[in-house]
Amino acid sequence: MKGSRRIALVAMTLGALVMVYPYAYMVGSSMKTRKEFAEDRRSLIPSRYQIGEQLAHFQGEPSALDWPGADWSMWRNYVDAIRYGGIDRYLGNSFIYAVVITSIQLFFNILAAYAFARMRFFGRDLLFGMLLATMMVPPAVLLIPNFLVIRELGLVDTLWGVIIPGFAGAFGIFLLRQAFLNIPAELEHAARIDGCGSWGILTNVVLPLSKPAIITLGLFTFMGAWNMFEWPLVVLSNQDYYPLTVGLSLFRSETTADWPRVFAASVMGAAPLIVLFLVAQRYLVGGISLSGMKT
C-alpha cells in the first residue's frame, strides 16, 4: 500500500513538473536579453540581473529605461512590451470583456437555471433538452450567424459586438441547474411558508447554498472570455478594441526576432488568470461536486 502511494506521489510530482515547466520557461525567458536568449534557449534562469548593463535597443529606438547610469535589465522587456506593443491597452480591453461577460452571463444563467430546476411550465424538459443539444454545435459554426446578427445590430467593430454573444451559455445553465437540484426542496417550502416568493427564495436560499458552483462557473466564464480569440478577430478591425489574445498575436508578428519581449507580454497576460485560479481554487471541487448528475 505504501509503495503504491509513493508511486502515485512520484507520478503526480512528475506531472506537476511537466505542467509547470512551460510557465517557468516563459518567466525565465522574459527576463533575458535577446543575445542571451539566442545563445542559450534551454536555460530557465537568466544570468543577468545587475543594474548598469546596457542592452540592445529595439528596432533602433531607445529603451523606456535609458536613465543615466541605470538599466533595470530584469524588467526591461516588460516595460518595452508595454511601451512599444501597447500590451497595457490590450490587457485593459480583455479585463473589460471578461468582467462584463462574466457578470451578465452569471445573471442570465442563474435565472434560467432556477427556472429549469424549480419552476414547472409547459415544455420545460423539451426546452432544456434543446438547450443541451446546442452544446454539441462547434463554436466555429456559430461565427458567421453571430457576425450577421451583430452586423444587423450595427455593432461591428465595437465593444458590445464582442460582448453580446457571450450573454448566456448552455453549459452554465446546465451546471447551475444541477447545483440547484441538489438543494433540498424542504428549504424552499419553509421559505414559502415564511412569505418568500420565487425571487426571495432564489436570493436568500438558493444562491447562498450554491456559492461554490457559482464561483466555479464564474471562473470558467472569466477564463473563456479572457482567452477568446476567433470572435474578436472576426468582429473587430480597430486595434484599440483588441483583447490581449489578438493584440499578443499582433505583437508577436511585429517582433518575431524579439522573443524575450513576447514572453514578457505573455507573462502579463497569464498572470491574472493564475492569480484568479489560486484565489478560487478551494471552491472548484465543491462547485463541481455540487453540480452532480442529479435529475
Percent helix: 55-70%
Q: What's the helix count?
A: 14
| Mean pLDDT value | 81
CATH topology of the domain at 86-290: MetI-like fold
Number of strands: 0
| Beta-strand proportion | under 5%
CATH architecture of the domain at 86-290: Orthogonal Bundle
Give the distance, in angstroms, between the N- and C-terminal Cα atoms. Answer: 37 Å
Q: What value does the Rg take, in angstroms?
A: 24 Å
Tell me the name of the CATH homologous superfamily of the domain at 86-290.
MetI-like
Main sheet makeup: none
Helices and strands: which structural class?
A: mainly alpha
What is the 3D shape? globular
- Topology pattern, helix = H, strand = E: HHHHHHHHHHHHHH
CATH class of the domain at 86-290: Mainly Alpha
Low-confidence stretches: 49-71, 291-295
Characterize the structure shown.
It contains 14 helices and no strands. The chain has helices spanning 2-30, 34-39, 76-85, 87-118, 124-133, 143-152, 159-163, 170-181, 185-193, 198-209, 211-227, 230-235, 244-254, 259-290. The longest helix has 32 residues, at 87-118. The protein is globular, with a radius of gyration of 24 Å.
